[in-house]
Amino acid sequence: MDAKILLKLLEDQADPAKVPHMEAYMKNKFRFLGVQKTILRKIEREFFKPFIKDPIDWNFVEECWQQPYREFQYIAMDYLDKKKKELRPEVFPKLKQLAQTKSWWDSIDQLD
């Protein structure tokens, strides 16, 4: 899975006019591309489809987490949510690190 391909897909659907509102809603703690959640979910469904039966791609999760745009953290969390049946206690330290990095109410709620 390649976050660079995902960036292009997101940029194609981004609405720059939405960015100020999205950033203000998150108290300007994060940058946004301006992709609404409904559009983001549609992009995710198509992007994840070829990979959903593969083992968890932690490199992809970490690559998304390091991206400057909040939509990428949402994608990483949604991906982990789709793979939650595969999560085992030994990955809890990875989840804890995600929760402690770029954390805010939205990420803590979903990672929980």
Q: Your description of this structure?
A:
The chain has 112 residues and is an all-alpha fold.
List keywords for this structure.
mainly alpha
Report the portion of residues in β strands: under 5%
> What form results from the Cα inertia axes?
globular
Low-confidence stretches: none
Order of helices and strands: HHHHHHH
Task: Please give a quick description of this structure.
61% of the residues lie in helices and 0% in strands.
List the SSEs and their pairings.
Layout: H1 3-13, H2 19-25, H3 37-48, H4 58-66, H5 70-82, H6 92-100, H7 105-111
